Amino acid sequence: MFDLLPHIVNGLTLGLLFALIALGFMLIVGLMEQINLAHGSLFALGAYFAMQLTGPRPPFPQPLAQAWLALPLGWRYAATLVIAPLAVGLVGIVIELCMRRTYGKDPLYGLLLTFGAAMVIEEVIRLTWGTRDYVLQVPQGVSGGFLFQDLIWSTYRFYAAGIAVAIIALVWVIIEKTPFGATVKAGAHDSEIVRALGINLTRLRLAVFVFGTMLAAVAGIIVAPIWGIRPHMGVDAVIPAFLVIVLGGVGSFWGAVVAGLLVGLCVGLSGAYASEWSLLSMYLLLVAVVTVRARGLWGKKSVLEA
Amino acid sequence: MALIEARGVHVRFGDRVVLESIDLAVGEGEFHGLMGPNGAGKTTFFNVLTGRVKPSRGAIRLDGGDVTGLSPHRIAAKGVARSFQIMTLFDEFSARENVTVGLPAFRARGFDMRRAAAGDRRLADEASEVLATVGLADKADVRAKDLSYGDRRALEIAVALAQRPRVLCLDEPTSGLGSDGVQRLASLVGRLKGKLTIIAIEHDMQFLFSLADRISVIHWGQVVARGTPHELQQNEWVKRSNLGRFA
Amino acid sequence: MTTIATTSPDAKRLITPSMLILWLVLATVPLWISRIGLYPYIGIEILIWSIYALAFNLVLGTAGLPSFGHGAYFGIGAYAFGLCQFNVVANLWVCLTAALVVAGLAGALVALFISHRRGIYYAFMTIAFGQIFWTIAIKAHGVTGGEDGLLKIARLPANFGVTSFDLADNVAFYYFVLAAFALAVIGLWRLVHSPYGRVIAAIRQSETRAAHLGYHVWLYKVSIFTLSAALSGFAGGLFAMAQLAAFPDVMSLHQSGYVVMMTLVGGGLVSFWGPVVGVFVFLIARDVIGALTNAWMLYFGLLFMAVVLFRPEGIAGAVAAVFQRHSLQSIRRQGGSAMRLLLGGERWR
Questions:
Q1: Is C349 among the domain residues?
Q2: Which CA distances in Å does A94 have to A34, A99, C46?
Q3: What is the pLDDT, as a whole number, of residue A119?
Q4: How high is the mean pLDDT of chain A?
């Protein structure tokens, strides 16, 4: 049992990251009643942007690039955690603009459109970076491992868990404690209320979409050293995001967090028995869950009901 | 003996009790009206009758046999047809094609993958007959989504009639119709009276009171009053709740 | 758009005039293909992917169900063909049947899990199953050859008893595939216009209404998915012969997306021939535009998004709309009605 501990820890870490991805996904589903299949690609894009920024050829004009490369990796990495999600947020704006025409139509159009966006983004990734695996460099301080109780632990996983907790807490504060959050909650409940209150629904939707994609991007950056960077890594993010909201419901913050942890644990534990196939457990779990239940543990009926 | 009856039907969605101990018996050939305010549970009751919703308690009996909780297609196959409050037509199909899909003769060939559907003269004639009943014979080849609202309402009923049902459940058939449309519908339904057993949810009191043999009033998920139109007009509760007013 | 919904005489036919014209044209392709700078193999690819896309469109266009993991069945068919050839018997008919049956079984299995749903849940389940099959294909080295694929698949001879055709040559194989395509088209055209096809179309428009008319909707959804998977697998078997190998990449989500894009851009949502048009445009774009730039696939993806946003009826739909208006204005103009026939009596959205 004790041997399972690292796997459990890995699973929980992964679970926190799944919760992070799912929160962004959920906000978009809740407010816009659209499923964004491109969410995973934005996750992937976050990882690729971060890799490019912290790598030997940052995308800045020459004098700036020199100055940038002169900084210690730790500083560059920290800055990347902010810059890369912002850049992905810009991509998110473009996608949201495209999605506007599909609001109110048969949800199949939104699905098809975001599916297309996911394909386009993956194709851009392939064209820009090729199909080989990449590695995201992380600062010395958070890499490597340490020994504790006769087991080798990965430092990075703890760091990743810590950052995930911090960002989830930040999301919670934003949703629960700020006017923006209150508006989002109201809008998710009933978009008419928001309009009646004189709030620009269009801008709100855009803001939420960008916020959601930035969360996905950050998650991508944090997961990159664990999963590696590949063009099709997006699927492995959007599937757990969907699974989390099926389990935890749309509109429940804690539902998403708990469900995320559950999914992560499932993947972590299956990694103990068949590490090659651990991601497969996520897909099997999705099949099992959707077959058995229709509504989340906490959430209300939503656009998912079909 | 009643042709279709509900006994002690109880429906809960989560914490909400939507229907409570509903008892209803409709005899063969009877026109039974259902009225009550919005949200009272009338459509839910229809959903239970037609198998769309499983009651938490209670039973539905059709011709003596228990049909509680059977799936909609099984209950439909037993002769229960239904029209919907929010129209559910096959919008891309023509009026004739809509009706054809409802015909039991067509349904029997539902898994026929080898013959052409369009060629069957007999089915086309049967469909035309049904269309003629509701006055849509001249619009048989018009696509459902291109029909006028009143014609769509008529088609909605035609599709239900195509099933050759024994029980016809009409959910707010006059909804959205002007007085001409209501007249037309009333005369159509009047022609059907006696030949079929009809249960109709309606808000239009005049329509209901002129056609129904008996009416049940449902409020807060319970039957609060029942009787002939005449009896109901005297009913205190009905009078107090404004439901007795003619539309 | 017209207010009169016509069931054209083509709907009753087993073989329509447009089919005959198409096959005739396709039969001549090997004679002139090299003169326009292409080669017979692309003809083979177009026909095989057309069968696949037509099969896929049974689910997307006819039944209105979003299947984003259909590559799994195409791939399973390819693997089944190869494995049958190596482990059972190297007979063309047996192996093609194996491709069809195994893919059909996989489809049936998946359909059992997903057919009580529609829309988003359905889409995600198809993605999940697609990923499951793809992962198995990649990881089960012993059986599938893993990422390297199942190699050394041969083009087995088409033995009809009295005579046998060697299919190793691309031109000979092209004619074999053309025959398969013709048969598939006949079968699918009839299926779509049969009572069963009507019911499926009704279910697409309103499951609720169909159920309340007495139709066992779940069973219809399971059956159409199974048929689609089986035929996709058959196309996969042909593809294994074409490439002389079976690779896992067709089963990936990315490549499952190809058939979705081709079908939609071509006009599969409104037209029987839409998928074929889409395959044609996709593969020609790949070879012609792909020769100029690596980013051709990106442009196609953007085209797909534009089609979803602005022209969901796709190419076939848009072209047919132009000609319908034409023939309404000038009924006597023979050219107009002949073009309508060429586009083969579509179902209209």
A1: no
A2: 16, 9, 34
A3: 92
A4: 86
